[in-house]
Amino acid sequence: MAEQRKDLVALFRNICRVAPAATQQFIKGLLVTALSSAEATVEDVEVTLTLLYRLGEIVGEEEIRMGTGMLGELVPMLLSARFSCHTHRLVASVYLETVTRYIKFTQDNVQYVPHLLAAFLDERGIHHQNSNVSRRAGYLFMKAVKLLKAKLVPYLDTILQSLEDVLGQFTVMDWANKEAKFSSSEDGSQIFEAVGLLIGIEEVSPEKQVQCLTALLNPLCHQFSLEKYFCEERRGNDPTVIFSVTLISWAKDMVEFLVLINQIVGKFNSSASGILEDVFPTIASRLSLILSQDAFSTGPAGNTEEMRELQELQRTLYTFLHGMVTHDLSTILLAPTCRQYLETIMQLLLYTSCSHKDILLRKACVQIFIRLIKDWCTTSKADDKLPGFRVFMIEKFATGCCLYSVLDKSFDLRDANTLVLFGEIVMAQKIMYERFGEDFVVNFVAKGLPEAHCPPDLAEQYYQKLQGNDTKAFRSFYQSLIEKIRQQQNGSLVFR
Which residues pair with 174 in a beta bridge? Predict the structure, then answer.
């Protein structure tokens, strides 16, 4: 049947090219019949919509935009169509694909934009009872936003109101089935992306952007509470099982939320500081529930679903923090409402930069520390933005990450990614010397290197190279220094 259908579609194309007016009249007759009959079958409606879809392939984009021939009648009929069998997945799917085919019609016929939006946003699309249809509608809606953009600005409030329930429930997981309402590659994030694209265009004023983003993000922040998953009827269940399932659901939600926030940071840079300062304490407080967990386990203990979800959450957290500091938003961490979480965050970053098995994550954490030094510290102690940070970097990070972690036998200098990480570690030392001066030298050269059994002459050479302006030469020397210390130790010491 599939092969026969292909042959019939090919025949239809040929007829359409030979007799376009007659073909369009024929399709109009089918469409009128399908809309007027309460007993129209799924098969009849599906064929009608399929022929209309194929017509759009043949007539061309310019003819669609101008409404050439009978398209000026057919497209408005399509946009307002509500078939008696519209709840059927097959009809709903082909309807949305056909509407998407004729989106360009509304570019020159803006009076039909509300009808187009309704097709995507009401029960025919995103609010369809079939979850597969609603997911697909979200993806196609994003395509419509990309194409129409500014023409949708007057309807921004209407769009947000129509999507309020969907956006609000995006992070609410189905505890019983252990799956989200949106779970495929065409998921709820497509709807967030579409709204984000719409809010971010130039035609939307900065004030309106802030208003929309606040309305979008605040409901999500309030959802990150574990307590909501423990309802009365589940208290009799095994608490270990409950916690595991809850943790998986919650971690997936938080990953999606952090990805969204990171996209906003990337789009608006420091302009997003107000919103980020509002949501960061909520993010940090929820994450503090699990940041003390050992998400770096190896072997069987590290291969559980819960552990994998925790690891993904931590990877996303590093990406989020990296995005913050590289977009001039490190001051958020110093806000009064955020400072209480700094100790936890710093310890996690330190542990990861020294010991994480993922070299790329270690590199990201070192880069975060480098940026924080540049943002928070000057050559004068009195001007530091965060008291104690300088001491933490000198006593913990410098020796732990820049020395002992590199001396560890697991730090493979033959590996390409490891060499990139090594380059960041070298850069960190140069930045610390630039900002911390002799305080760094005394602790690293006079204390750290001797404790690692570095010969005095090599320690002196290190100091001389550190003072120079040739970073490449310093890197080369430091690599040779590490290799010499390793040979001297002969594997007798393992630095962790």
Answer: 179
SS3 179: strand
Tens of pLDDT, residue by residue, the chain (496 residues): 888 888 998 999 899 899 999 999 999 999 999 999 888 899 999 999 999 999 998 888 899 999 988 999 999 999 999 998 999 999 999 999 999 999 999 999 999 999 999 999 999 999 999 989 998 999 999 999 999 988 999 999 999 888 888 876 654 333 223 333 444 444 556 787 788 888 888 888 888 887 887 777 666 665 554 544 334 344 444 444 434 444 458 677 788 888 888 888 888 888 888 888 888 888 887 776 665 545 445 555 556 777 787 888 888 889 999 999 999 999 999 999 888 889 889 998 999 999 998 999 999 999 999 999 999 999 998 899 999 999 999 999 999 999 999 999 899 999 999 999 999 999 999 999 999 999 999 999 999 999 999 999 999 999 999 999 899 999 999 999 999 999 876 544 444 4
Q: Where are the alpha helices (DSSP H) in 269-304?
A: 273-287
Q: CA 233 → CA 178, 229, 230, 239, 384, distances in Å?
A: 17, 11, 8, 13, 53
CA distance linking residue 21 with residue 25, whole number of Å: 6
Residues 26 and 40 sit within 8 Å (Cβ to Cβ): no
Q: What is the DSSP letter of 177?
A: T
Distance in angstroms (rounded) separating the CA atoms of residues 144 and 103: 7
What is the rounded distance in angstroms from the CA atom of residue 382 to the CA atom of residue 390? Answer: 11
- Of the candidates 288, 291, 275, which has an alpha carbon nearest to the alpha carbon of residue 324? 275
CA 260/CA 263 separation, integer angstroms: 5
Residue 102's identity, in one-letter code, is: Y
φ and ψ at residue 384, rounded to 5 degrees:
-60, 140
Distance CA 276, CA 324 (A): 9
